[in-house]
Design a protein that fits this description.
The complex is a heterodimer of chains A (about 230) and B (about 400). Helix content of chain A is about 30%, strand content about 25%. Chain A is of the alpha/beta class and about 230 residues long. Chain A has a single domain, classed as Rossmann fold (3-Layer(aba) Sandwich), CATH 3.40.50. In chain A, the strands form two sheets. Chain A has a six-stranded mixed beta sheet. The longest helix of chain A has 18 residues. Chain B folds into two domains: about 170 residues, no CATH class; about 160 residues, no CATH class. Chain B starts with a helix and ends in a 13-residue tail after the last helix. In chain B, about 50% of the residues lie in helices and about 15% in strands. Chain B is built from 13 helices and nine strands. Classes of the chains: A alpha/beta (about 230), B alpha+beta (about 400). Chains A and B meet through helix 1, helix 2 and helix 3 of A and helix 2 and helix 11 of B. Chain A: Belongs to the ABC transporter superfamily. Chain A: GO terms for molecular function: ATP binding; ATP hydrolysis activity; transmembrane transporter activity. Chain A: This is ATP-binding cassette domain-containing protein. Chain A: One of its GO terms (cellular component) is plasma membrane.
Chain lengths: ~230, ~400
């Protein structure tokens, strides 16, 4: 049941790593609400908690304390099956492309659709072709990752994340491996998805070029939100 | 192949694509599975041949009940049985005939080689105790020092065996006596001898003067039609005075002999262990291949986990790989094993051959052990944590 329109909300979110004397708090009372269709950028120094927050928002870690509401579902104490089901509505873009080396670009992108259940093969291939085309890879669809450049691999990974029309995209340095023009195209694509489909994007980046395009910039330091700029 | 599997699974055949991505590694994995299959096939082939060889001499005879000494675990093992117990058994109303069966190894020195013949001493006046093929040829055994030879004996040239006929008999010396072979029958080399020979009980006693007419190795009984050998055996155990004797139906005696050869004789136990070792080698090879494959693709699996793929999907991939390894490893394994068994059969004249039963058993077994290995290998998937990807 949807609690409100914001696809992502946290309230007094705390998170720790380790146990006993080695236990270290990574997030301190993080409360935020991210609007539907927006492009939010998380910035901050290494170890500030950006990645931890991203993984908690993406159901990749168990919520220890506080609340995370994703797409209307409370994640604190949620069953693992709910996490799996919710992740199918998300798009993940990792800093490393993590493409499957045995699958072609087309097949890797199809994996982003197959997770949603049985999809008509022709429809799935049309969608994958379209996604790869949007990222300028129409002529590389049958290439294995080993035969693609770093930037091309990253664009395949982005196509894989976007092909299933995710409600939320969680991205970790998605443009790090891309040249200026490709990076700008990707961010522009994410912006357009937000406007056209209401896709919400939360992105960790050190790329200052992206900050100008973001709707909101959240700054984390030592596990706390120390800056929140709306644009 | 990829298309076919895609239709079959209703998804991308990731297992197939993953395995075939590195052709060299795939070929090595298949060779490993094929090797395990060859091991199992050869051991099974030898076990089967042992069964065939053990039961073969029983097929020369035609009886309902066999009386043996207490220590007689096999046809060619154990002490003698006093003929008087045959006479006592024949007092049973269902017993219609009895015959003493003598058994010994007779050597035929042929130049540099020696043919070891398991020799049966039978009463030529009672052809009903023999298989129809042999019974039809025992006429000459009425003659002293006459014999019938196993034409498939190991080391006996086929042309020479084919020349042995009543009108062209062949004589040879053994134990200082001349034995004349008048005809042949089909047997074959076994684990205990190179072949078989049939002689009359009188000839047998002449060849082996230490043996006594009153003490054959076994006593064979025929029953009236319709009598149950098991029931009569039970009744005979009460009737015959010597309670230490083994009185069994002839069929049961064959089964006991086979069980003894396979489970209590060193050769049978070794071949049995060979099969187990082959299966274990197969499990270890498939597990090693699959668990290495899982470890090599941990980041990809973690990515799929992050995308929302469940445990069933990963289990499906690993089991798909296990099935492919099992299936594609089985084919060359079966072919190589067929060739090896044929070659071994020719070299040893043992009844070694690939049988449909072996193919079915090993095929199903291969798929099962591959799946078991796959299921064990999926435990490594727990290490694929998508949170580590960021």
């Amino acid at each position: 049941m949807a609690l409100d329109d914001a696809p992502l909300r946290t309230s007094e979110l705390n998170h720790w790593f380790g146990a006993g004397e080695a236990r270290k708090q990574a997030l301190f009372d993080v409360s935020l609400s991210i609007a539907r269709g927006s492009l939010t950028v998380l910035v901050g120094p290494s170890g500030s908690g950006k990645t931890t927050l991203l993984t908690l928002l993406g159901c990749l870690r168990e919520v220890q304390d506080g609340s995370v509401v994703l797409l209307g579902h409370e994640l604190h104490g949620a069953r693992p099956a709910l996490g799996v089901a919710l992740r199918r509505r998300l798009g993940f873009i990792f800093q490393a492309h993590n493409l499957h080396e045995s699958l072609t670009a087309m097949q890797n992108v199809l994996m982003g659709l197959q997770v949603k259940g049985r999809v008509d093969k022709a429809t799935a291939e049309r969608a994958a072709t379209h996604a790869l085309g949007l990222l300028g890879l129409s002529d590389r669809m049958d290439y294995l990752p080993a035969n693609l450049s770093g930037g091309q691999k990253q664009r395949v990974a982005i196509a894989r994340a976007l092909v299933g029309n995710p409600d939320v995209v969680l991205a970790d340095e998605p443009t790090a491996a891309l040249d200026r023009e490709s990076g700008a195209n990707v961010v522009d694509l994410l912006k357009r998805l937000g406007e056209a489909r209401g896709t919400t994007t939360v992105m960790v980046t050190h790329d200052t070029r992206i900050l100008d395009l973001a709707d909101r910039v959240l700054t984390l330091e030592d596990g706390c939100i120390v800056g929140d700029q709306q644009r | 192949m990829s298309r076919l599997l895609e239709i079959l699974f209703g998804r991308l055949p990731i297992g197939w694509l993953q395995l075939t991505h590195s052709r060299t590694r795939f070929a090595a994995a298949l060779a490993g599975v094929a090797f395990a299959n060859v091991l199992v096939f050869v051991q099974l082939g030898i076990m089967n041949s042992m069964a065939t060889a053990t039961l073969r001499p029983y097929s020369f005879l035609n009886a309902d009940i066999m009386i043996s000494a207490s220590d007689s675990n096999a046809l060619s093992e154990g002490g003698n049985v006093a003929r008087q117990w045959m006479l006592q058994a024949m007092a049973h109303p269902d017993v219609t005939a009895g015959m003493g069966l003598f058994l010994a190894n007779v050597n035929w020195q042929r130049g540099a080689t020696t043919l070891g013949l398991t020799t049966f001493g039978i009463d030529p006046a009672q052809p009903g105790f023999l298989s129809p093929d042999i019974a039809a040829k025992i006429g000459p055994l009425q003659i002293q020092m006459a014999g019938l030879l196993d034409r498939l004996s190991r080391g006996l040239p086929r042309e020479e065996a084919a020349g042995i006929r009543p009108q062209s008999p062949l004589s040879f010396e053994t134990s200082g006596k001349t034995l004349t072979l008048y005809d042949t029958f089909a047997g074959g080399g076994g684990f205990g001898g190179d072949g078989y020979m049939m002689v009359s009980d009188q000839t047998f006693l002449a060849l082996l003067p230490a043996r006594q007419s009153a003490a054959p190795d076994h006593i064979l009984l025929k029953l009236r039609p319709g009598a149950d050998p098991e029931t009569v055996s039970t009744e005979l155990r009460a009737l015959v005075s010597d309670k230490t004797l083994r009185i069994r139906s002839f069929v049961q005696a064959g089964k006991d002999d086979l069980s003894y050869q396979q489970t209590r004789r060193p050769t049978g136990v070794i071949f049995g262990f060979g099969v187990i070792i082959g299966v274990l080698v197969g499990i270890v090879i498939v597990y090693q291949v699959l668990s290495t494959d899982v470890a090599d693709h941990m980041r990809e699996y973690a990515t799929f986990k992050a995308m929302g793929y469940g445990q069933g999907f990963f289990l499906g991939i690993v089991l798909e790989e296990a099935l492919i390894l099992g299936l594609f490893g089985f084919i060359p394994g079966a072919l190589v094993a067929t060739g090896l068994l044929t070659l071994m059969g020719k070299l040893t004249t043992l009844p070694l051959a690939m049988t449909p039963g072996m193919i079915v058993i090993v095929f199903v077994g291969t798929l099962v052990f591959s799946m078991v290995s796959g299921a064990i290998a999926t435990r490594r998937l727990a290490g694929a944590d998508p949170a580590d990807l960021f």
